[in-house]
Design a protein that fits this description.
single chain; UDP-N-acetylmuramoyl-L-alanine:D-glutamate ligase; 18 helices
Amino acid sequence: MGALAFAYGVACYLAFLGSFAYLVAFVGDLPVPRTVSNGPAGPPGMALALDLALLALFGLQHSLMARPAFKRAWTRIVPPSLERSTYVLLSSLALALLFRCWRPLPGTVWAFREPALVLAAWIGFWGGVALTLLSSFMVSHLDLFGLRQAWCRFRGVPWREPAFRLNALYARTRHPLMLGFLVTFWSAPVMTFGRLVFALGCTGYILAGTQLEERDLLRALGPAYARYRAAVPRLLPAVRRRIRDESPAVCDHDPMPKGTTASRGAPGGPPILCLGEVVWDCYESGAHLGGAPFNVAVQLARHGVGAALLTAVGPDELGRRTLDFLREEQLPGARVHPRLPTGTVAVTLDPAGVPSFTIRGGCAWTDLEGAGTELPGRPAVLVFGGLAMHAAGNRRLLSRLLEAWGPGPVLLCDLNLRPGWSDPEVARWCLERCHYLKVNEDEARFLDRLAGPDWRMQPGLRGICTTLGPAGLVWREPGGAPLALPVLEGAPPVLDTVGAGDALTAAMAAGLAAGDPPAVFLERGRLWAAATCGVRGALPPRPG
């Protein structure tokens, strides 16, 4: 399959080369069978309507398939490694349809007679073509057209989106490739009405398309891209102004600039927001507060990291006790559901201290949307889990939050599947939205069965932490070598492992908010997890 995938990628790339070469000849009225100004004609009104429809069709295909939401749905059908090649192929076919069906329009807007003007127009035309090609190589030509993704599939290695580095072009204009197309389209020694319609239509598409692209980049890369956008003009290059090579660290999918503290977020928003369940874990010996997001939030608070917990409890005694506990921990965000009870879970431990859970449904945490309408401020990191996302209302709430916040938050998901709470569509929903994912071995195998090994190449996924029980953990980034860490040596005796994974998640969240490299926050996670395993229950002792 790898060889077939690579052959497909090469074929799609050749289709691009052919369509691009013909586009140059088509726009420039070079000697090819049909051009923007020469070919079978028709009634002017019908010809104009057809030409505009062809331009709209190409624009819709080119923009719609580039949107992250479409890519998430499309990669359920097409392997992620071939998504870009397929996009290139369909774009080439849309151009071929335009070339075949285009109808020239009568009339001329201008026709230069002076040799100097004719020469200047042709210099502009070929200069625009050169700028377009040069710009494609500055953002990794092979990745842009899907060849490297197919090559990685052939070699059996993950593909990693290349880092964006500022250079002489991208430090002066954010879209030099589109600028090259504009210069090509408008540099005409003879501007016929047909070419004018083509140039105007493409200009409108470029202006709209770059806005959509930048909206997606802001959501993916956050404040660093906002700074880059503020410093560099969109199309017309800055002649005197130039920025330092600062944005690439974030354009390389770093969630935050290095050296920040774990206090980033919008005014009024917590540095780290944990969203999901708070429950009472009921052991034979008694009941203890728990739930993965709750455990993560308390871990953060007890290690001095600012956090909040967006959860819900019932109007009952367990709910009152929960709110009292959260006030002591200085963790805001909990809501009281007007109807549903506080969540409970029956926990049993095997002889090795490994827990199993029986989760009660129909509790307050399954309807966070129904427990209040006020939206919290934007955090630097949002931690959410698959368990709470099994409720459709919670998924709607998370979608509302992401829409209200806009770009910025780093999304960390602990998949946290449990018997009876392992809906494949929910797992896929979480996978499609998170930037960082924590899973255990069973959950990784579940995703393998659900989506095949290519789930690790999900667009937007920047890092995966797989816990291996007594064997430690493995960290993977797309295109990077795995980082394996064993269980911490010399740790206290294990009393139970409840909450160990949540301690690791908390350390990951703190590190992502602070901009720490994975080796740093994973080592911190090993320490926090070992301390949690050395006490009964899921929480470390309170400081002091």
